[in-house]
Amino acid sequence: MAAPPEENQQDTGVRIGTPAGRWILLTTVLGSSMALLDSTVVNVALPRIGRDLDADLAALQWTVNAYTVTLAGLILLGGALGDRFGRRKIFVIGVIWFAVASLLCGIAPNAPALVAARALQGIGGALLTPGSLSLIQASFHPDDRGKAVGLWSGFGGVGAAVGPFVGGWLVDGPGWRWVFLLNVPLALLCAPIALRHVPESKDGRKHARGFDVLGAALGALALALVTYALIEAASGTLIVTGTAAAGVVAGIAFVYVERKRDDPMMPLDIFASRQFTAVNLVTLCVYAAFGGFFFLAALQLQVVSGYSALGAGTALLPITVLMLLLSARAGDLGRRIGPRIPLTVGPLLCAAGMLLMLRVGTDASYVMDVLPALLVLGLGMVTLVAPLTATVLASVDASRAGLASGINNAAARAAGLIAVAALPLAAGMGAEAYRSPAAFDDAFTRAMPLCAAVVLVGGIVAFTAVRRPAPDCRRPECKTHGSVTAPPLERGSGKSGT
């Protein structure tokens, strides 16, 4: 059922060519870029972080995963908070929160402090990431909304493309701490502009109960406990076994709470759509493979191939550039031929690219060894990401499009989280492996076929379970996309959805 009209959202909204429209675009691009940059540059900084803080591989895994645990667990709740209390207000809180957490990351004296600050960063990201798109949907005139979303996603894609390059330059120059400290001046620019130039908006619907804080907490707790158990599994202690069991219990409790609540964060009846369930299984597979790949590839290039941080960050740019240039065309192709072929062929190309990375070892040639693998992988990601998003939106009622997109985005982040925790264990990577080029190269050689196998499972699921959607289904508005960590968020026609 469609939601009632929102407060402050009339048929006459802000036009994109006006000063007010440009201010709103600038604000939302700055805010989303903070979170997007952080999710793409940290991998490049990991070897230097480990060396400076004397951290083992588990600490590096947590440097990535602490952020993803809170972001994936709370992103649906973050969207709901903005809809209820004011999208601008929650967005600004998220920007400030993210900046303070980034400052704590930048001054962290040791690995535990850095991991704790990264978890706080994820909370800020969960508030500002859905809020940036919500502000566009709520503020712009309906005739300009699609163009505004396109500009927002395009500029965000450019941010994703330059992120590893900027991150590598910072790591090699002033130091890895500036990867985080850079967010502080961005926030000092973004928050005042939002407060001065962005109109406030809320969702006028009446909700049955309060926020599903319990569901969000249980979801994040389950992810955190399972992640800990996977990272520490090699120790084989009783604590690890108990943590794994507690993670399973928390996951069961999350499902129970979501089933019983009148207004849950993640209504389980949305999975009654077989197409929605199938495409989320595909998402779990492909983004698990992507998460594991990008975590290890940045380390392989630096630890084994001898690249600098800047060199490693620049080396990975072709993937994002391909996604920026071709994602809209891939979406158009998917609409013409249906999602089944792209969602099957895309994983095949990704698997081939991951296997080609086996050629990347000591003194690897960028042109002969690294670039071909990244081009094939990038073409595979281009082929599948846009049709994946379109199929998610097409598999549910239009009024639930935003919710479906939020669940899919959270599923992708959770998949990457589990992969970063599990892949080093599955590949036999020891706690000090990243300090030894030979040991890391051996583990990387075992890990890439595992990534390829997981992404191939996603292709098989797509081939057997995904079907062409109805011709009048909801279509994505974020046609240009450059992030490699999760599919783009979409909203439900300007109404609450996440």
Characterization of the model:
This is MFS transporter. The chain crosses the membrane at residues 23-46, 58-78, 90-109, 115-136, 148-170, 176-198, 210-231, 237-257, 278-301, 307-328, 340-358, 370-394, 406-427, 447-466. It is a multi-pass membrane protein. This protein has 498 residues and is mostly helical. Helix content is 73%, strand content 0%. The chain is built from 16 helices and no strands. The chain has helices at residues 19-53, 57-85, 87-106, 111-139, 142-172, 177-181, 183-197, 213-231, 238-260, 274-304, 309-315, 317-337, 340-356, 366-394, 401-426, 437-465. Helix 2 runs antiparallel to helix 15 (401-426) and helix 12 (317-337) runs parallel beside helix 14 (366-394). It is globular and about 60 Å long. Mean pLDDT is 88; it is low at 1-10 and 494-498.
